[in-house]
């Protein structure tokens, strides 16, 4: 690809530091009346908040006139898709035009679009641009945009001058991914966190290099955003390290740097000098003004400050004041959690992505003032990352989209120092492991079940129409069905009331939905003592008869042991109400539940424990309530057994529960059955009549198969070989008897057609790209021709686990686009080996 270098002079040799003279970005101050919509990439077609904001700033549905610049892409598809999305949100076709600006020929068209390059010098095109109320840059390669719009001598083309004129006079400029990267003066065109922390600098971006990291590559952007450096795909690709190093190297002491997550936009109001966040994730704000740098040759610094803002939050870029959405409360002094978090060391770390890890483990946790993570290559050369509370650190919490946790935080201190991490196999590392004495119940399955199950993995969003509509569709009488909600798991009735309101919003009759009086916990916000409900009602004949007339029963989330306490007698036998639930289920009713309401579905109920701790320590016979759901050894109780095909776990992606599901399934599962890890905001829908299951919702389901694992006396405790993992999501179907998987026909096989070709460092913590299990495997192994295996390490103190994920002849990957141009993966039969190791950190 042809690349111009404008006025950029980068280090000629890898390994040299950037200095303030490396890149000349001086620009005169301009009076800007326009606004910016800077999207972090993977913008979903369903993200109405971002689309509506862009259209509103562009003049509204009647007055907006929008030009789409396709230059960054290799085809017109993304521009055509964005145009189609705008029409979906109320614009007419004549209000939108794809502007013929590009520096290369596009695939899939008869025209040679490389000739469009000369249009950047066309007065006719410039006049057209000046009459737009908005310009949108699609994603792809940001260098194609600058190469198209900037002359080889660094001067602006007529088209770029026209864009600036429109912007100065009040127009809006928006862009996603590459279209976000060009917004600031300093344009990050390549590099990852590991390469940047090693302070490696490249003359050109090469993501498919033969190294495990990509060196930092900077050029000059178009400078529409005047308040600091912008980076994108921030959370998904874990780019904090590269943004911090760019800010430190460029010495932008008086400005923040901004990392914008996918499906999220930073809205910039130049008149008010404010930015606000809109969308589904957030924006990380980096402040290097107080940084103390020991060494930049290999990153060694402290007191970089990280803040994270989400939808509804804003920032005054002139005064540097943060304004947090008023639906949130401060967590300082009112922290919800009291658990000792493990260091974030790999795929067994609960809340293993940066925002989630810091929110749950540090900000909203009264027991700790600092947490650690790591980032290193396969030789162990890397860095220790420390995140600290200071007197200026503030946390904020509220609910969003129903009852999903919504956190913001400001001024968390970030320190980095070089470390060498080494691992040696140690089969005896976990010799004190305790086996479980739990005995699974015998469930009477002599009678066939005609009903269905909808098992949701937790954090079910009120806007998750696919799951709610599926639940309603499964019921006998659809919108007119009778639904009973069991509130037992929760400490209040709020979640039950919210679920009822959600069902009504999706078309059900409020008169047919009843919150059933079953609980062992008192809701302190009501005059009644609900803690007596179960004792009085679980064997009540009238309530049992009412339950038998229901078309659906829903279990809310909370503590799963409270559900079983509310429905089982003290001797472990079924109460009359539980028998009635079974009766209506056998006769065709749908049973559903989320979080705790999912955990109760299988015979063996996982009631507590973390991934690392359960694999390392085994099981406990005692239960200390909700805190044990954040970690500790595994704890098992009897489930209600509605799902007969294996063991279920929930909150699987966010709480990283692969390790505990493997440990439980190994000890208490039938190895010929699969085990099921259901992600948040996602449901496994079980059709008992057909003996099939499908996935519905925004995440997926991890399938754990122990039937082919290698068993050998030579293997140590907590050591496994040849566990098979599959991951399926919306539209994929599983045969529950044969274990055959049918993949959504919209996806194509990646096998032999892998998109990526790069070496992969181990997943080592919060700065590992594609941080959750399914994405790490999808991007780095299944769709990567260079990798036959990828590794992760999870450890505490001086011992831990090596996880080795391998392709085999049976491994298949599948990819497609969903919701605009978001990557959508499934994979089948990835092999996993788990080996105990000794850990040394120097």
Automatic annotation (TrEMBL):
EC id: 3.4.15.6
Catalytic activity annotation: [L-4-(L-arginin-2-N-yl)aspartate](n) + H2O = [L-4-(L-arginin-2-N-yl)aspartate](n-1) + L-4-(L-arginin-2-N-yl)aspartate
Coiled-coil boundaries: none
GO MF annotation: an example: carboxypeptidase activity
UniProt cross-references to Gene3D superfamilies, sorted A to Z: 3.40.50.880
Signal peptide range: 1-26
Keywords assigned: Carboxypeptidase, Hydrolase, Protease, Serine protease, Signal
Signal as UniProt keyword: yes
Function according to Swiss-Prot or TrEMBL: Exopeptidase that catalyzes the hydrolytic cleavage of multi-L-arginyl-poly-L-aspartic acid (cyanophycin; a water-insoluble reserve polymer) into aspartate-arginine dipeptides.
NCBIfam families recorded: cyanophycinase (TIGR02069)
Classification via PANTHER family: CYANOPHYCINASE
Descriptive protein name: Cyanophycinase
